[in-house]
Structures are given as structure tokens and as C-alpha cells.
Write a structure and sequence with these properties.
The protein is mostly helical and about 260 residues long. Helices cover about 75% and strands about 0% of the residues. It contains twelve helices and no strands. The chain has helices spanning about 1-20, 25-50, 60-85, 90-95, 100-105, 110-115, 120-135, 145-170, 180-190, 200-210, 210-225, 230-255.
Length: about 260
């Protein structure tokens, strides 16, 4: 139970920090609404011209957008803030403040993964969930099995997202100052649309190299019964494999760190 206790302490400290700047709530709410409006209106404009998008109906594409918003919100809740503090603007690797994380009597990967939280991301989670529910009320026939498989697929997607971001963060140890996670941000924007609409070469990259397509397209397809349920098992294996590889890569990268005091 000690890891859960530590995560609770990290989350409590972050919540106190967020509540100290309450005006940020309205700014975050405005940002979330604009982000949602842009996504929804883009699909409205697109489907005003066509009836389906590579076999995806408007309701299914809207459902995919909901999945994208939910996963993005979970990233913004705890994965992004912690890893960005290490490898983002003002990164600790560059400034040398990573020394303090190394001195803590807990595993380094655990420390840099859960220490900072952004509870304003819950606004995106609520809006994304609302879009997902609304999309699936538009004549979709869902089964209990598909819903359960979807939830498992969503968990796998978050694990894959964490593994990929951890690997991109690890690259910073070789090139401090270069914002590798921003490269991923640009690619992750493509996950708001079905991966099947992209050219074959880009589809291969988004599926097998930087698997952003696996994070949103596959869970949505499972929810609507468009792919065999066995694919969730393969997604779970892929998530476990990527997590192990990225953890090994990160811990190897940490050994390259030169202390600010050395």
C-alpha cells in the first residue's frame, strides 16, 4: 500500500497548488471547451460533405473523438505534468534539479511518473466522457461484452501512452534541451481521426512505430464491434511489452545523467 500512499500525497500536494490559483479553473474550462468545439465542428463540417469516412459513420467518428479526449485528459492529469517537469521547458535534466529526485528513497521511475498532478484535466475527462456517451446514443447498439472490452482497451491505451512518453523522455538524457515530447504531441494530434484514413506509410508508423492509432482507433473499433475481440488480447500484450522496454530504456538513460554538482 506504500505506493498508493505516496501517490495520494503527491496528488494532495498538487491539488493544494491548483487551488491556490483558482482563476486557472476558468482558463482551463475555456481551453477545454474550445478544444472540444474545434473537434466537434471539424467533424460536422467533414460529414456535411460526405456520408462516411473510410467506413466510419459520423457517430463512430464522434465516438473516436471522445476516446481521444478521454485519453488526452488522463495524460494531462498525471502522466504529462510529471514527465514534462523532467524533460519539458525548464527541464530538471538541463537545470540539474534532477539531483533531488535521485536522492529520494523511492524508485526514480515511480518518482518522476506520479509526483505532479493537474486536476484541471478532469474538465477534459468530463467533456470527453460526455462526447463518448452522446456519440453512442446515436443509434449504436452496444453490448456489455463490447463495453467491458472497450474499458480494457482503454486501460491498455493509457499504458501504451505512458510507455511511449517515458521512452521519449528518456531520449532527453542523450540530448538535453531538445523537447522530444513535443514531437510526440504533434503525432498524437493525428489520433483524433481513424488511423485507416491515412496513407499506408503513415498508417504503419502510427500503428507499429509510434502507436498512437492503437490508443484511440482500436478501443473505438472494439466498442462498435468492428474488429474481433481477440485484438484486445494483442493490445494487452503490446502494452506490457512496451512498458517493459520503455522502463528498461529509461533506467538505462538515467545512468547517463551527469549531476549538477559533478
Amino acid at each position: 500500500m506504500r505506493p498508493l500512499h505516496l501517490i495520494g500525497n503527491f496528488a494532495r500536494a498538487s491539488l493544494q497548488k491548483d487551488l491556490a490559483y483558482r482563476a486557472n479553473f476558468w482558463i482551463s474550462l475555456l481551453h477545454s471547451c474550445i478544444n472540444l468545439a474545434v473537434g466537434v465542428f471539424s467533424l460536422q463540417i467533414l460529414f456535411h460533405q460526405i456520408d462516411s469516412l473510410k467506413g466510419w459513420s459520423q457517430a463512430e467518428a464522434l465516438s473516436l473523438l471522445g476516446v481521444y479526449l478521454v485519453i488526452s485528459s488522463l495524460r494531462g492529469l498525471f502522466i504529462g505534468p510529471s514527465l514534462e517537469a523532467l524533460a519539458g521547458i525548464g527541464q530538471e535534466i538541463w537545470s540539474g534539479n534532477f539531483d533531488f529526485s535521485l536522492l529520494k528513497p523511492i524508485p526514480v521511475q515511480f518518482m518522476v511518473s506520479f509526483r505532479f498532478w493537474n486536476f484541471y484535466a478532469l474538465l477534459d475527462l468530463i467533456l470527453g466522457s460526455a462526447v463518448l456517451v452522446f456519440a453512442n446514443m446515436q443509434g449504436s447498439t452496444l453490448t456489455i461484452q463490447n463495453i467491458l472490452l472497450f474499458l480494457i482497451g482503454l486501460i491498455c491505451a493509457v499504458v501504451i501512452l505512458y510507455a511511449v512518453l517515458l521512452a521519449f523522455t528518456a531520449l532527453t538524457f542523450w540530448s538535453p534541451g531538445f523537447l522530444f515530447t513535443w514531437v510526440f504531441d504533434a503525432l498524437f494530434q493525428l489520433a483524433r481521426y481513424p488511423v485507416t484514413i491515412y496513407p499506408p506509410w503513415l498508417r504503419m508508423i502510427l500503428t507499429w512505430i509510434i502507436p498512437v492509432g492503437m490508443m484511440t482507433t482500436i478501443p473505438t473499433q472494439v466498442l462498435h464491434g468492428k474488429v474481433p475481440s481477440e485484438i484486445i488480447g494483442w493490445s494487452a500484450l503490446a502494452a506490457a511489452f512496451l512498458l517493459c522496454v520503455s522502463s528498461w530504456f529509461f533506467n538505462r538513460a538515467v545512468k547517463r545523467y551527469s549531476s549538477a554538482s559533478s
